[in-house]
Amino acid sequence: MTTCTCSTPKGPISLMERPIPLPETTSEHLCAQCASLDLSAFLRSEDSRPDRLRLKGRMGSACPLCRFLATTASIGYSTPSPLGLNTEIVYNLKTVSLPLAFGWHLVDTLQGGYLFHFNLLGVHSGSSFTPDCCILPVDENSKKSKWPAIREISPTSIDFSILQSWLLQCRNHHSASCAPPDQIILQDISGLKLIDCQTRQVVKAPRDATYVALSYVWGKSHAAESTVLNRSSLPETVPRTIEDALQVVLRLNLKYLWVDKYCIDQSSATELAQQISIMNMIYSAAFCTIVAACGEDASFGLPGVGLRTRPAQPAIRLNGQVWVSSLGDPVTAIRTSMWASRAWTYQEGLFSRRRLIFTEKQVYFECNNLRCWETVSYDLHSEPDKRNVPIGGGIFDTSFGDEPRGGLDKHIIAYTKRSLSFQSDIINALSGVFRLYSRMPTPTRHFWGVPMDYNSRWTSGWPANSTVIKPNPSHRFEGHIDAAFARGLCWHLAMPCPRRPGFPSWSWSGWIGPLGHLAWGFLNKFGDSQVKIWLQRDNGEHERLSEAVIDSISKSGPTYAGYTPILRIEAWVIDTNLTYLANGLSDARIHHRGVYPNQRFFISIEAGGNGGTLRWPVTLSVQATEGDELHRELCRETLTCVLLSKASGFGLLVRRRTGGMIMERIGHVRISPAILDSEGSFDDTEGDYTAYNDFHKDVNLFDIAPRLRRAILLG
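User: That's the sequence. What structure does it adopt?
Assistant: Structure tokens below.
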């Protein structure tokens, strides 16, 4: 690749050379509250500085210091409507340490024990221990290389030498963790096209090109323009975010930009599918990624680059001393942005090695080693050990550095919290992640999003393996491939959700909603449940799941050519009716180890001689409200519980579709332990309770309910 030619700033980057001009404020301009306030006192030694100070003010006050502090404090206010200039704002001033002010992820970047003793003046608008933002004086002390400083930034223009210094620090010192992986060679990214930002031509990627990728939100208005024909140059007018991204590339002294809208022929289904499948390679190979974490669509622009300006940074010149605000934590702004809510941008941010993230107020940089705010200045040249190992704590702490972090299940869970404009994209928008895991030394493949491998750790269902994992003999019993796929079916939603048309009910992709925090639970003790699984081909024949079938599916791409989304599952099943308790278990006398506050449906069996009723809680995937038709059907129908894992206590609850033989998932059952719902008295002494628990805590539904072995069709 060509060498990045952006220049390295000389010496520490501590203060803008041209501070924002401010009028002088003296004591006679201040109100009585502010006239008695000594901001510098908060930065003195511990024995002489004041404790937390509670103040109030208005952004429209005649007092300049009230305006400055109230405007700074307003950053942390969460109100249904914008704060007015005359709204009274109550806040606290308190000395805070650097880790508390800017987070451990930034302190990890800075390192050095002295930084833990560096104090700032925190502004708290609520009761949070962490300040909403900080203020510091700007003076010659800010230029001492070991001290961080709050930098004044311009509302209208970004100092690109700052951004260049971040990128060069990473390029020069983080080769192991932030450089594109060796296996990604530019010429191997088939069909890659780039925009030449100087000529605005769309060209085939040169062999040695260094390019920047753009991650942004199209928005509804621009999504309607998605059928851009294959073109050799940009149209005369492009959305503002893309126009600004072109300028960022040039200001970084680079040449090429990749934008999905113009670098993929949106009218070619073949090219679109091929390029979508290699998104992991496209973003991983980029020198850096511009992230537009601002606005709701591509018309917003990148603040500080083009026409879009940024809010003025609160600042005041008080008795000859300039004080400035750090603004709010950009990480919070990014996580609450429209960009962070969209499904497509998940893998774009994940695979990017270096990220220049534009928010409405400032630019934030994150690689696998470094976290930088535009408003926080410190000397990167004196970084103690120029370390080359990944650190956590940032926005992308599950990203892919020298070794991928997090299991496939963790990425799927995070991904399902995001939204899609077109529900049919649910698999496509995560295809880069699936591709990466399928090509690891110990691969994890998937079918309709359900992982299909038996490599488990207690912390992660399908870990990111950089080496070949030796097969565990206990995992290679007869039928272990069926059991491995059955394990992938044992997910649960965070809440009942609507169905996603066109996708099977047995996959999380068939539901519009987030998966639970531990969607697959702790399934490392999955074991053999004697499950057999067949896939249905287009001709109606069934093909037993095997390594050969899995390989065939993996090679067919996202269309699963030749297969339908219908499974044939042979397993132990129980035909059962559900019990509905309107108040759940809140009013009953219950003896059990867990608490199930939200369940209203149960599988119930009389406890016999001990009295009471044994209940197993049902967690619904479907939305059923008391009084609606589905709720009434669930109360009267005979349903089927399929044993997928006795060891992990997971039973899949299914019902027959109207007028057919195919069943669909409606929820799952925790088949062990049972809950005793007893209306009678119960001796709660330790001895009696222990004896009761010894007998009942491990009562498994499939051990006491009538069961039979049967094959079902599940769609």
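Confidence is low (pLDDT under 50) at residues 1-19, 384-390, 591-595, 680-696.
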